[in-house]
Design a protein that fits this description.
The chain starts with a helix and ends with a helix. Helix 4 packs across helix 11. The chain is globular and about 70 Å long. It has a 7-stranded mixed beta sheet, sandwiched between helices. Strands 13-14-17-16 form a 4-stranded antiparallel beta sheet, covered by helices on one side. The chain has a two-stranded antiparallel ribbon with strand order 1-2. By secondary structure, the protein is of the alpha/beta class.
Length: 414
């Protein structure tokens, strides 16, 4: 009931936009139209102020000091961890490891979960639409252990082939790693179904949630995954901080992956003992200010409401899809029925980088290139696409601005 009522209320976009200082700036003489949130979302003043407020009044090292500032910094840092726990509905804060971002989270799983256990002939299953950060760590692990990376195909719309996935799960499959949402195509994967099939067969699961956390409600217990990775900077928080959710029973059995301060209980030259979870996986002084900013971003998202954000972004997606589809020579890349918050496209006879440059001259920020998903580009037979991605602050008027500028740019570049 609450969710339905919440969905029915549209976002107050003028108020939301006023929360993001950068959105009032001009770029190349035009009001900024920021359509690159999938790469990095902008930060609301609440996040910027939380990070600055920490630096101004509470900064000290965490966990080690008896003095007041250190205790305050520790309370802020651990308070952020509890916010993250609630945000993903983890059972315990012991399951929330702060890392640099999704990339580091996935590398941590590969190195600490995979490397000690996997052997020659073991198989790691990924999908074709993965970001490089959910491919290369597994290739490195495969090279180190003799394991093999196997790839689930996608179809012409950018949907992952579930039957082919089931066919790839075999007695040698040790781990499945897949995106919740594709950064290159926008495809939303039915991750709970993928995870259930793996779990039935005793296979570990890693979800790359970098593109899901800002847009969809994330419930790691409902998904049932063993690991879930995401980055603060894609969800209106700062760079340099992200999260690995890891099921406690698995994390408890994993060896540390980096050694140093804070991850130990005792150190002697006869041997050292490891700290409790999750600190065992956070060697050295962490990004305390970043964690504070992530906590503020989670509060901000919660204040706006996940259901309202999803409804608004879905509206933008449908509006943009319809408008862009009407541009002659423009081909949408990624047309899955279940999509989130971005449009990726090519324009006949126009190179994406040229298009991006002309759009920038009109103050419109889009991303062009392979989007760190070269196997996706190969699948669609293109070297690159132009991608416009939406955040909660974007408007239909900005989609109109993109549409108009695209028309002009295409006329100019052809
Ligand atoms: N996975 C996906 C789907 C992404 O879009 C990204 C960022 N582009 C990453 C992983 C890596 O995130 P980060 O660079 O923050 O580690």
């Amino acid at each position: 009931m609450v969710a339905a009522r919440e969905t029915a209320l549209p976002l107050d976009l003028a108020r939301i936009r006023a929360d993001f200082p950068v959105l009032s700036r001009q770029v190349n003489g035009h009001p900024l139209v920021y359509l690159d949130s999938a790469a990095s979302a902008q930060q609301p003043a609440a996040v910027i102020d939380a990070v600055a407020g920490y630096a101004r009044a509470h900064h000290a090292n965490v966990h080690r000091g008896v003095h007041t500032l250190s205790q305050e910094a520790t309370a802020l840092y651990e308070g952020a961890r509890e916010r993250v726990r609630r945000f993903v509905n983890a059972a315990s804060v012991a399951e929330i490891v702060f890392v640099r971002g999704a990339t580091e989270a996935i590398n941590l799983v590969a190195q600490s979960f995979g490397r000690p256990q996997f052997a020659a002939g073991d198989e790691i299953v990924v999908t074709r639409l993965e970001h490089h950060s959910n491919i290369v760590p597994w290739q490195l692990l495969a090279a180190e252990t003799g394991a093999r990376v196997r790839v689930v195909p996608i179809n012409g719309r950018g949907v992952v082939d579930f039957e082919a996935y089931l066919g790839l799960l075999g007695p040698r499959t040790r781990l499945v790693a897949l995106a919740h949402v594709s950064n290159a195509l926008g495809t939303v994967l039915p991750v709970a179904a993928f995870v259930a099939a793996a779990r039935e067969r005793g296979i570990a699961t890693v979800i790359d949630g970098a593109q899901a956390a800002p847009h969809l409600p994330v419930d790691v217990q409902a998904i049932g995954c063993d690991f879930y990775a995401f980055s603060a900077h894609k969800m209106y928080g700062p760079t340099g901080i992200g999260v690995l959710y890891a099921r406690e029973a698995l994390l408890a059995a994993m060896p540390p992956w980096q050694g140093g301060g804070d991850m130990i209980l005792t150190v002697s030259f006869e041997g050292s003992t490891w700290n409790h979870l999750p600190h065992r996986f956070e060697a050295g002084t962490p990004n305390i200010g970043g964690a504070v900013g992530l906590g503020a971003a989670i509060d901000y998202l919660g204040g706006v409401g996940a259901a309202r954000i999803a409804a608004h972004e879905q509206d933008l997606l449908e509006y943009a899809t319809a408008r862009l589809a009407g541009i002659p020579g423009l081909t949408l890349v990624g047309t899955a029925p279940d999509k989130s918050s971005l449009v990726s496209f090519t324009v006949e006879g126009v190179h994406p980088h040229d298009l991006g440059t002309v759009l920038d001259s009109r103050g419109i920020a889009v991303r062009t290139g392979h989007h760190c998903a070269m196997p996706v580009m190969e699948h669609f037979g293109v070297p690159a696409t132009t991608r416009a991605s939406f955040g909660l602050y974007n408007t239909r008027a900005e989609v109109d601005a993109l549409h108009a500028a695209l028309g002009d740019a295409i006329r100019m570049l052809r």
